[in-house]
Amino acid sequence: MKLLVLLASALLAGSAAGAPTAQIPKFTQAEIDSGKAIRELGRIAYENALARAAKATTGCTRDKVRIRKEWRNMTLTDRKGYQEAVQCLMQKPARHKGLDGVRTAWDDYGALHYYQTPYVHNSATFLLWHRHYNWVLEQDLRDICGYTGVFPYWEWGLDCGSMGTIDKSPVFDGSEYSLGGNGKYVAGHQAAIGGARPGTGGGCLTSGPFSNFTVNMGPVGSRDPLKYNPRCIKRDLNTDVCNRWATLRNTTDPILNSADIAVFQAVVQGDGRWPAAARVGIAVHGGGHYAISGDPGSDFYFSALEPGFYLHHGNIDRMHFIWQNLDWENRQTISGTNTMYNSPPTPEAVLTDNMGFEPLNRNVTIKQTMDTVGGTPLCYVYEPW
Predict the structure, then answer these.
(1) Cα dist. 353→37, 124, 364, 374 in Å?
(2) How many angstroms from the chain centroid is the CA of residue 206?
């Protein structure tokens, strides 16, 4: 592993970097595992992105940049405000028309993710479609529900390995300032992903935020996945999954060891078409999802109806943000087609291709989502935790 770290440093040093190569330090395995490495890489990326914004005279100028924070670094006021704004969307009218199961503005997100799943996973747009998807949610929380705080991410590795357990995480501890707790324990249940031990829940949320709210559509395997099917939100918090696939090492290695976007997005998703990704199993993308698990958290198509989805994908986007801003001039690129695993086969994606977000928001090109401080329309950075 030490050889891989040194190789990553050499690759970064050999590129025409947006940041001086002296800014990319070498890390020991202990520094990677403890989180020191990802904090330092995050600091460099944060400062590089803000430096670019400081040069702008219109659009995303330095004074307009929004700062995204890890959940535990948010104020209690912002944590509570974010959670209440999500609950607000769960009670506002839907924008999708003619879909039986779409009853609320929150359901809109589940329907959009359902429709787009075959095009925005293991494809050229995985990272950038989900980047804009989170941004659209941020706008809805502000414009529809009046939330004025920061948008969160969840660094999974702070709640597994030697760092703790997920049911003690401030994101999922069931407190007033969390996104609710675990589901009721179901004896004898199986883990959502093969090879892992079962989580510590499995049933309905019994207390805390979201225990009184419903999932209105799905699951994907039903005869009509978009039919109205109200049921409780379930969770099965699983530290074993996090320990295997979403530690601080799992977060850091793709950033250090991916020379191009094809490898980076493959390793983040566990896309076995690339040898480097074939060794990481379900990778951090699957690891974060299945660390939450439950219904709809384990549903590939409808997982966006789980409130923790957006903090999880915030951390995926943060990884991409860091990777890009360590070598900005060379990392405004895409790789792949616009269909999952290129099935059915489609042409290679290009930056002018449109990504669909209607009826929630206007459609945007891939290029418009490339820069989080590009101002067309994105204007945010990730603060290191």
Answers:
(1) 35, 11, 8, 17
(2) 26
Q: Give the C-alpha separation, 270 to 69, whole Å.
A: 26
- Asked if 203 and 250 count as a contact pair (C-beta separation under 8 A), the reply is no
* Three-class secondary structure of residue 203 per DSSP: strand
In a 10 Å sphere around its CB, with 0-12 CB exposed, 13-18 middle and 19+ buried, how is residue 79 labelled? buried
Instruction: Identify any residues that bridge with 380 across adjacent strands, giving them in sequence order.
Output: 66
Q: Specify which residues 205 forms β-bridges with.
A: 183
Torsion of CA 205, 209, 214, 215, to 10 degrees: -80
pTM of the model: 0.94
* 257 φ/ψ angles, rounded to the nearest 5 degrees: -110, 10
- H/E stretch holding 350 reads none
Burial of 220 (0-12, 13-18, 19+ CB in 10 A): middle
Strands 66-70 and 214-215: unpaired
Half-sphere exposure of 123 (CA within 13 A, CB side): 27
- Whole-number Å distance between alpha carbons of 172 and 306: 12
Q: What is the CATH number of the domain that holds 138?
A: 1.10.1280.10
Q: Which phi-psi region, left, alpha or beta, contains residue 355 (left: φ > 0; alpha: ψ -120 to 50)? A: beta
Show the domain range for 117.
2-382
Positions in the chain short of pLDDT 50: 1-22
| Cβ neighbour number for residue 9 with a 10 Å cutoff | 16
Question: How far from chain centre, in Å, is Cα 297?
Answer: 13
The residue assigned the tokens 């969770």 is 235
> How many domains does the structure of the chain reveal?
1
By DSSP bridging, strand 231-232 and strand 354-355 are unpaired
Task: Determine the number of helices (DSSP H) and then strands (DSSP E) in the chain.
Answer: 12, 9
Q: What is the pLDDT of residues 266-293, one digit of tens each?
A: 999 999 999 999 999 999 999 999 999 9
What pairs with residue 152 in β-bridges?
69
Q: What is the pLDDT of residue 152?
A: 98
Residue 79 sits at φ, ψ, to 5 deg, of -60, -50
Residue position matching structure tokens 């996945």: 225
pLDDT at 23: 63
Q: How far is Cα 38 from Cα 8, in angstroms, rounded to an integer?
A: 14
